[in-house]
Amino acid sequence: MARVLVVDDAVFARMKCVRLLAEKGFSVDEAKNGAEAIEMYRTHRPDVVLLDITMPDMDGLAALKEIIEIDPNAKVAMVSAMGQRAMVMEALELGARDFVMKPFDTGRLLQAVQKLMS
User: Fold this and answer.
1) What's the CA gap between 98 and 108, in Å, rounded?
2) Alpha carbons 31 and 41: distance in angstroms, whole number
3) Rounded to 5, what percent of the chain is helix, strand, coil?
4) Distance set, CA 94 to CA 10, 12, 30, 60 (Å)
């Protein structure tokens, strides 16, 4: 069973992702900010990370840099609201492999996870 780490400071968005992925048979961990995401990545080494860009304390770009430093082969998809195109482009340059726009379409979210796992 594949393990997915969902990182988002918005409780509702995080819960929606977790529920959807769990229903599809994934093992899901969650973190509410970038610092937690890094610690969870070190501890659990998930197969896929869904990483929100805008979060307090440590944003998704900073967390992505550290996750890629820990594991250059990390499979990360950024989760972004409309209007963050420049940040999405930067994330892709830093090593993210995909992105999903918020509010996310469940089919697109699952497609991103499956793409990263293949």
Assistant:
1) 11
2) 10
3) 50, 20, 30
4) 24, 27, 22, 11
The verdict on pTM exceeding 0.90 is yes
What is the distance between the alpha carbons of residues 1 and 13, in angstroms, rounded to a whole number? 23
Measured distance CA(74)–CA(116) in Å, rounded: 10
Tell me the CATH number at 63: 3.40.50.2300
For 28-76, write each residue's pLDDT tens digit.
999 999 999 999 999 999 999 999 999 988 999 999 999 999 999 999 9
Residue 57: name the closest of 6, 110, 8, 3 by CA.
8
Domain that holds residue 11: 3-117
How many domains is the chain built from?
Answer: 1
